[in-house]
Amino acid sequence: MATTVTRKPAQARPWLSKQLRNDLRAYAFISPWLLSLVVFTGYPMLATIYFSLTDYTIVQPPQWVGLENYQRMFTADPQFWPAVWNTTFYAVISVPLSLVVALGLALLLNQNVRGVGIYRTIYYLPTMVPAVAGALLWTVILDPQNGLLNSMLESVGLPGPGWLKSAEWSKPALILMALWAGTGSAMLIFLAGLKDIPQTLYEAATIDGASSWQRLMRITLPLLTPTIFFNLIMGIIASFQVFGQILASAGSGGTVGPLNSLLMYMVLLYRSAFRSFEMGYASALALVLFVFLVLLTMLVVRSSRHWVYYEGEHPG
Amino acid sequence: MVSTARTPGGARLARLGRGLLSHILLITVAALFALPFLWLLITSLKTRNQVFTDPLIWVPHPVMWSNYVEAVTAPGFPYLRLLGNTVFYTTMSTIGMVLSSTVVAYAFARMAFRGRDTLFGLTIATMLLPSVVLLIPTYVLFRTLGWVGSYLPLIAPMWLGGAFNIFLLRQFMLGIPNDLTDAARVDGAGDLTILWRVVVPLTRSAIIVVALLHFLWTWNDFMGPLIYLDEAAEAPLVLGLYTFRGTFGGQPEWHLMMAATMLAIAPIIVLFFFTQRYFIEGMTFTGLKGA
Q1: Quick one: pLDDT at residue B234?
Q2: Labelling B168: which of A253, B3, B136, B159 has CA 20 to 30 A away?
C-alpha cells in the first residue's frame, strides 16, 4: 500500500511536477470564486471608476466627459447636498443610539435569570422582518392623527408629532424604526462579547468592594471595546446605505418625504441609475459614497488605537 | 453574582428584589418590541373604518379574516405566486452559495498552493467593500447578457461563492484535526472524497448557519429584485409587497396592506422559530471573528 502511494507521483514527474499538480487541483477547487472575484468584484470596481468619467445611458456607449459628473454633483445637482445632509443626520444619530440600545439589551440579556432565551428571541425578531414590511407596519403605527404611538402619547398628555408626514419628524421616525428593526444583530454580537469576559474578573472586583456601576465602567466596557468597534463600523456602513425602508414609507418619485426630508443618498443614486438611466452620474455617486465610507472607516480604525483595548496589550 | 452574604436573609431579599427588577425590565422591553407585531396583527383583522380611530380599537369587531382572503385575491398581490417565486429563487441561490462556498473554503483551509494567502487576503478585503460600488457595472453586465427581467442575476453569481461564507466555513474547517483528513488520504481518498466524507459532516452546523443566513438575506433582499425584476411579472414577496403598496397611491387600504404584510413576514418568522439556535450561533460567530 505505502509503496504504491509513494511511487505514483514519481511516475508522473516527467511532465508535471507534484507541486504544479497540487496547485492546479487547488485552483480547480477555488475556480468559481476566482471567476466571481474577477467578474463580480474586480471588473465592476474598475468599471465604476471608468463609467463615472463618462456620460452613459446604456442605449449608447459611454461618452468620455472627464470630471463633469463630479462637478455636477458638487455644484449643480440641487438634490446632492440635501441627500448628503439627510443621510449624515440619520447616520450620526442612529448609529450611536443603536449601539447604546443594543448594548443595553445585551446587558439585560446577560443576566442569570429564567427564560432569558425567550426574551432574546423577542428582541431579535424585528431583525428578521424585511425592511419594506417593517416600514409599512410603522407607517400605520406612526400615523399623526390616530396612529398607535400618537394615541398613546396623547393619553399621557404629550403632543404627538407628525412623524413621517412632517419634515422635522420624518428622520426621527426613521431612527425609531431603526431602533426597533436594526439593533438585533449588534445585540447578539454584544451578548457574545459579554459572555467572553472572564467571570473571575467580576468576582475579584466584587471582593474588592466594587459596585455594579464600577464593574460596568471598569471591566465590562473596556473589555467590550473591540466589539463596540466592530459594531460601530458595521453600523456606519449600513446606515449610510439605508434604502428599502425609505422607498416603502416615502416612495422614490417626486419629493421623498415631506420637503424631501427622507431623500437619502441611496435613493438619489437609485433614481439616477434606474429611473433616469444616467449610469455615469450614478457611478460617480457610488464612488463618492465608497471613498467617503473608506475614509470614515479608516478614521475609526485610527482612532481605535486610543479607545479599543486588545488582550495582550497594556493600556497606558 | 457571588454575594458575600453576612446576613443571609437580607442578601437573599436583595437578590430577590434585583431578580424581580430584572424581570420587570425584560418584560417591559419585550412588550415594546412585540407591540408593533401585535398591532400589525390587530390592524390586519379590522374593517377599513376601524384602522385609524379615536380612541384606538384594540379588539377588532367583527374579526375580518376576510381581509386575508381579499389581500391574497387582490390582483396586485398574488400571494401564492409571490411566495412560490421567493421560495424558488431563495432556494436556488442558497444551494449554489452553500455548494460553492464549501468547496472553495475547503481549498483555502486544507490545500497548500501558491498564492493561497494572497487570494485569501483579497477575499477578506472584498467583505469590506460596500456593494453599492459594484452595483451599476454589474447591472450593465446583466443587461448586456439579456438577463434583466429574469431571476438569473439574483441566482447565478451566488453559485460562485460568497466572501463571508467562504471565510466562515474556512474558519470551521481549520478546526478539524489533521489526523482525520490524513488518515483518509493514506487510505487513498482524494480531496473530493475527503471533503464530502470527512470535512462536510464535521462542518455540518457551520454549513447550516451559512445556508440559513444566506436564505434570510436573499428572502429579505429588496434592492436586487427591485432593479432586476422591476417590470417582471413574476416578483418575489418583498417586491410584491412594495408594488402592492404602490397600487393604492396616496390612500392605501391599510387593513389589506397589513394583512399582506403579515403574510409576507409570516414564513420567515416561522422559519426563525424553528432554527433560531443556528441564527444566534451564526451572528455570534460573525461578531467574534470581526472583533
Answers
A1: 87
A2: B136
